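pinned: reference chain
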Amino acid sequence: MENDYKPLIILFLTIAISALAILLILKYLLPLFIGILIAILAEPLINFLSKRTKLTRGISAGLIIFFVFIAFLYGLILVIMRLLFELRKLINMLPNINNIIDELTDYFINIFESVPDETVVFLEANINQILKYIEGLASNFYGLLVNKIGMLPNVLINVFIFMIFTLLFGFFLTKDKNSIILTAKRIIPSSLQNKLKAKHIELLFSFVRLLKAQIVLVMISTLITVTGFYILKVEYALILGLLCGLLDILPVVGPSIIFVPWIIFCLITGNIVMSIGLLVLYLIVLGSRQLLQAKIIGYNLGIDPFITLLSIYLGIQFFGVLGLFIGPIVVVIVRALLHSGLIPPLYNNNR
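pinned: its structure tokens
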């Protein structure tokens, strides 16, 4: 009887240990993890450059990593410049929030002109209370925004240090790949090497495909949102589009936290065209995410979409937002270990 439960116990232990290990990696060893991904992605380019130019592996790795760094830095500078431009406009607008609140108050009062006086007094008091609360939030946001912009140099320095270490890890992992593999072979027992040989590449590339799938989903959502905002001639389109794209990672809430109040506000203020435009854009973003999430991740990992969706849901329940990545990664690890024979199957067809 105990042997019947042994595969199930091993499976649950594998899932728990894998989830904990991934959580620790994402929290403390993210530059190293990204460096490994860069090394894997850069490997074909390095081999191609080494063969075509007769350059050493170290020089080829250095050139590829350098160009990756320059391209990323260039894109980051362009985005930061645009963000700073839109943030400056936003900061200049925020001190005038009182005028906006007064205009909204007058607008609501005009709406209720045909309503009985007692009702108007009640609604006016409540509306004023709500608008004062919004004014307080806006003032706090303004102060927070000014303080955060003051911290921008420190943030940029931390980002730069993170990038440098990530690229250094990527460089040395690609440059010294052969020696790292030889060292690993000396440490890992030969019996374990035989089991890992067929599946360790699949496991590593599954991580890459998972990351690629998540990046694709976020990029699609962000691109749709930013494009939609520019078509609708929305101010601060880039800031709001990037924010909605990032919020799209979050379960349940997602970009709804921006879209829904905005649509309602446009309806109340009589801006029907904008409300319809935002609603259509919101439905496109929501629909594309729901349709593509399980399909893209499942296709890239070779996992059934239902299992992918279940792993995402359970990951979110246990680990919050990080579970969006941890859940599918755990499935990938368990799948690779089952296929390699390192953990026994739950059932035996021969029985």
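why pinned: Residues 57-93 form the longest helix (37 residues). The chain has 14 helices and no strands.
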